[in-house]
Design brief:
Chain lengths: ~160, ~70
C-alpha cells in the first residue's frame, strides 16, 4: 500500500460530497491540510454517528472501491466508535466518537474549509490529542501547539 | 492576536515555508508509508468504544509505535 496522496484525498472529498456524508479531517492529517508541516501515515476522518450518515458513508466507501462485507456494513450502521479500513485503495481511520469533543455538531460548527476539504479547527485537533495522551501525541503536541498559534495569527478572525 | 506560545525560530521558518507551498505539494511531503507491525496485519478492525481501541493498542502493539498512553 502506497502513502495517501492528494488525488485520493480529492476522491474522498468528492465521493463523500456526492453521497452527503458529514465528516471532518482530524488528527495530524487535518493539521496537515491546514498547513502543518509534519509527517503522518494515517488519514483520519471524524464521521457523524447516525444511521443515515452511516448509510451515506457506506455508499461513498463502495464508490471509492473499499471492499466492505455485510458484517462490516452492519458495524458501520450500528455505530462503532472506531473503524480501521485497510481493505480499499488506501487506508482510512474512521472515528465516530472523538476524545474531548462532546458532540460532532460542535466540531462541525467550528470546521474550516481548505479547498473543499472539511477540517477540524486546530483547537479541536489539539484537544483530541491531549485527551488521547499517547506517546506519539505527546511528542507531536508542542510543535502542533506552536503551529496553532502561527495559524491563529495568520488567520485572525476565523 | 497575541501569541501565548513562543514559536521557536526554526519552526516558524518551517511554518512560513509550508504556507507558501500548494496543498498538493504539502500532502506529498506529509503522507508517508512504513509498515507498522500488527496494526497493518489486518484489513479491517472495529471497536465499540475508543477506550476499547486504546486498550487493544496497548495490549497488542509494540510500544515503540507510540500508541500506548502516557
Amino acid at each position: 500500500m502506497a502513502a495517501f496522496e492528494y488525488r485520493q484525498a480529492q476522491e474522498v472529498r468528492d465521493a463523500f460530497a456526492r453521497r452527503g456524508v458529514r465528516y471532518l479531517f482530524i488528527g495530524k492529517s487535518g493539521a496537515i491540510l491546514l498547513g502543518f508541516p509534519d509527517t503522518t501515515q494515517d488519514a483520519d476522518l471524524y464521521v457523524e454517528k447516525n444511521v443515515e450518515n452511516a448509510r451515506a458513508l457506506i455508499a461513498a466507501l463502495l464508490d471509492l472501491g473499499f471492499a466492505l462485507s455485510e458484517d462490516q456494513n452492519r458495524d458501520l450502521e450500528r455505530g462503532k466508535d472506531f473503524v480501521q479500513l485497510k481493505n480499499g485503495p488506501f487506508d482510512l481511520d474512521l472515528i465516530f466518537a472523538r476524545d474531548r469533543i462532546e458532540r460532532f455538531e460542535d466540531a462541525w460548527r467550528r470546521r474550516l474549509n481548505v479547498e473543499g476539504f472539511p477540517v477540524c479547527h486546530p483547537d479541536d485537533i489539539i484537544a483530541s490529542k491531549i485527551s488521547a495522551n499517547r506517546t506519539k501525541d505527546r511528542e507531536s503536541l508542542p510543535r502542533l501547539q506552536a503551529f496553532r498559534e502561527y495559524w491563529l495569527n495568520k488567520n485572525e478572525g476565523i | 492576536m497575541k501569541s501565548r506560545v513562543d514559536i521557536p525560530a526554526d519552526w516558524l521558518a518551517e511554518f512560513e515555508a509550508a504556507s507558501r507551498r500548494p496543498l498538493e505539494q504539502r500532502m506529498k511531503y506529509a503522507f508517508i508509508r512504513t509498515y507498522k507491525p500488527v496494526l497493518d496485519d489486518a484489513d479491517y478492525r472495529a471497536f465499540d468504544t475508543m477506550e476499547q481501541y486504546r486498550q487493544w493498542c496497548e495490549k497488542n502493539l509494540p510500544s515503540w509505535l507510540g500508541y500506548g498512553r502516557v
